[in-house]
Amino acid sequence: MITNVKVPPMITEKKLVELFHQMWLIRFFDEKVDEFFAKGLIHGTTHLCVGQEASAAGAIAVLEDRDKITSTHRGHGHCIAKGAEANRMMAELFGRETGYCRGKGGSMHIADVEKGNLGANGIVGGGIPIAVGSALTSQMKKLGYVTLCFFGDGASNEGSFHEAVNMAAIWNLPVVFICENNQYGMSGPVKDMVKVANIADRAGAYGIPGNVVDGNDIFAMMNVTHEAVERARRGEGPTLIEAKTYRWKGHSKSDAKKYRTRDEEMEWRNNRDPIERMRRVLISEGIVSEQEAAQLEADARQEIENAVKFAEESPMPPLEILEEDVYA
Amino acid sequence: MSTPRELTYLEAVRECMSQEMRVNEDVFIMGEDIGLYGGAFGVTRGMLEEFGKERVRNTPISEAAIAGAAVGAAMTGMRPIVELQFSDFITIATDQIVNQAAKNRYMFGGKGKVPLVLRTPSGSGTGAAAQHSQSLEAWMAHIPGLKVIQPSTAYDAKGLLKAAIDDDNPVIFYEHKLLYRTKGHVPEESYSLPIGKADIKRAGTDVTIVATAIMVHKALQAAVELEKEGISVEIIDPRTLVPLDIETIVESVKKTGRVVVVHEAVKRGGFGGEIASLIAESEAFDYLDAPIKRLGGKSVPIPYNPVLEKAAIPQEQDIIQAVKDTVFRR
Ligand SMILES: Cc1ncc(C[n+]2csc(CCOP(=O)(O)OP(=O)(O)O)c2C)c(N)n1
Q1: Is there a catalytic annotation at residue B142?
Q2: Chain B within 8 Å of A103 (Cβ-Cβ)?
Q3: Nearest CA in chain B to A162
Q4: Residues A67, A150: contact at Cβ < 8 Å?
Q5: Model pTM?
Q6: Confidence of residue A77 (pLDDT cuts 50, 70, 90)
Q7: What is the pLDDT of residues A103-150, one digit of tens each?
Q8: Which of chain A's residues have a Cβ under 8 Å away from the Cβ of B61?
Q9: Which residues contact A193 (CB under 8 A, 6 or more apart)?
Q10: Chain A contact for B45, CB < 8 A?
Q11: Using CA atoms, how far apart are residues B191 and B118, in angstroms rounded to an integer?
């Protein structure tokens, strides 16, 4: 019985254990990607969400299978949380035929439409209007599903954000905007790029609720998202949630991180690690033991090792697919 | 005489901007992450330290606003240089570039001017896939009121950028990502190359290759191979698409009688079609010994997998083959 923490009604103890494991999967996936990128085995560019596991896992945990998400360039976590297989994701990053996009998309362009993931996006802010369109379908066809729209603090300065949120607001669309404020848009500190104290404050300009939440607290994430999703399902329209979080790694490859200090990084890593925070709660609630927690971590590590093996053993795409799928 | 000095393409671009900013207070640069970070490709590295954050202006991630602010600044007396992080994001800034920057002077009856430079990295080869790898120069070349520049060497980049900054019109300046690290002779002093003057990158007699940006380098390699087989290739780099130096191309075709046009952008609707048509419409038509041949990217978004990525655009071997098809045609 969960006693000292509030959780949304659909979150069982079993689900909590799954979420804990899922956060480790997200972390190990991206740490592996980091490692393989450094070795030159993954090419192109990648954006890692290490340190941001709770916002992805927590928000998506309260969704039903039919609900949808749109993601960003920093989207591996969202993708995993929405049910993507680590195997096929890793294969995509290796550019293999078995990857989600047959090696054509890579890190920034993974979609899994069948599972309700309408895609990562290489265009900052590019997914926000798409989420609104998805919500419009749900409303017009009375499908009852909700769309969660992830984007960064930086993306909230794109015109697409303002236009899309306004449109969703006036039409009362079933969409929940989740700004993962990890404090930086590439090298731009949010405090230099946004004059209001919170991105969520912008909600007022569109006449919708705005909530600030500790994005490293998976319980807070679940509760606030649940409330917003319920509201959307009742036809009361969108909510803007701002999850305050931090990305542990640089923006992408060649990032010397000159725009922030080592002390700041260490503070977030050592004192606000979302996985460690959940671990402590699960243990104090008696939901898992120390050993069980360690086992879940080890299982996740193994799953990612298996994904790498799967990716490495997968074939390269044949040249013939180059011109396939340009048109339906 | 000073000893020839080598710079990378990237350094040449930076040196030009720095030199212009030193002598002209109106010139400033703005874009995403161009300050402390030095820009996505490091082009502006070190400039913040010298010029300060007023003139090396870090912007929010707001391409339409960046382009629009540059238009407004340019109309009111500044000479902004915009760094758009990837040329793909021109799509977001399109209204400001196409409907505002390009048309204002004309619409307002020749009143005012819009002296801005929009620099942006273009092209594939980095594995960044479809949304960060395309070549959209033909789009911009289609718009009356814009000038479009595509330098292929460090020397050309420095000289053409100065010309772009001095120009009183909006100029789109495409920098190929894979050329940033290439080196070449670049004079230390400030110099300007004319916008609208092609460069003969290699002289030859049997066939003309008109190539842009990175394709100039692939064509140069192909020419070395073809030379071994006794085929003498002349390579023309237009350097600027708008205005285009068609005379230099026509003269070359009159000499060689054969022409292959090659660019990285998708062949369909690409600028190669324009060049081919201009040749066909010119007096060079009567000198042609074979049909004009065009090489360009396949009609696909740029894929992620490196093998597919390479296969999507013309390579040295394709150029060699195209030249042979042209030369050995009877
Ligand atoms: C339209 C557009 N502009 C710029 C970029 C380059 N870019 C990619 S990610 C990024 C930073 C985005 O910051 P934010 O939205 O806060 O997300 P975060 O990276 O922090 O997760 C930038 C500038 C892009 N991909 N698309």
Answers
A1: no
A2: yes
A3: B62
A4: no
A5: 0.93
A6: very high
A7: 999 999 999 989 999 999 999 999 999 999 999 999 999 999 999 999
A8: 124-125, 154-155, 157-158, 185-186, 188, 193
A9: A153, A154, A157, A185, B60, B61
A10: no
A11: 20
